[in-house]
Amino acid sequence: MREDSEGRLAEEVQEREKRVHVHQMGILTVDASGAAARQESGDITWHEMVNAYRTKKILSGGLSGIERLDGGWVVAVVYYKDYRVLIPMEEMMINLEGDGRENSNTLNRQTRLANNMLGAELDFIIREMEEKSRSVVAFRKEAMLRKRQQFYLGQQEGPPMIVPGRVVEARVIAVAQKAVRSEVFGVECSLKARDMSWEWMADTNEKFSIGDVVSVMMMKISGDSIENLKVEVSPKEAKTKCQQGKFNAPAPPGKICRKNNRCI
Length: 264
Fold this sequence. Notes:
This protein is an alpha+beta fold. It is about 30% helix and about 30% strand. The protein has six helices and twelve strands. The chain has helices at about 1-25, 45-55, 105-115, 140-150, 195, 235-245; strands at about 25-30, 35-40, 60-70, 75-80, 85-90, 120-130, 135-140, 165-175, 180-185, 185-190, 215-220, 230-235. Strands 5-4-3-6-7 form a five-stranded antiparallel beta sheet. A five-stranded antiparallel beta sheet has the order 10-9-8-11-12. Strands 1-2 form a two-stranded antiparallel sheet. Strand 8 and strand 9 (about 180-185) form a beta hairpin.
């Protein structure tokens, strides 16, 4: 009887140790290439970023600051979930046209505008990763050029997805008293306060903030290359089309600003 009791106790201990061992192993996943990868808790995001690096997938993250590293290297710091991603300022592809500082140093102009974009959601493609230090370097320019190619240039299957007259969504990436800077599928453009709404606004900060997504009508697309692409958009015309209920694009009818869930 005693031997049976000791035997059952030993089996229970072995079963308990087996369950603990299995729990500690974590989840075994299969990455995009079909290879098995051990996915420990806390490494899920890193695993996801490694896959994005291999496939050149566009990721998005919030701009949290501008830093000057040793050697004078100026970078934008973007957070993708819990990981810091460094984007060299020369790879931010910030549109300097109309900033009023044409005679100033280019890097200083880029840095000043980037500081006004804190909190904005930016696209990027990872170019370098170092697992030991978990450091990540990415390029925003490459992501923007890819989006321009995808949405503004015709594909073999058909015409461009964005053409004049279509209503599309734009990200608000910076707001000043009399102007709003937006990013429209890889192209930055600035809009004056009077062009943002049919209503008079003394300060655009009263109705717009970084992170808003606004619907705009594409008025004009120009440029002799994908790098020099320029767009002119109108939130006012988009609102008119919204009120008329005449949409030829997947922009949600009945609203202009998604974040505030209201027409402006």
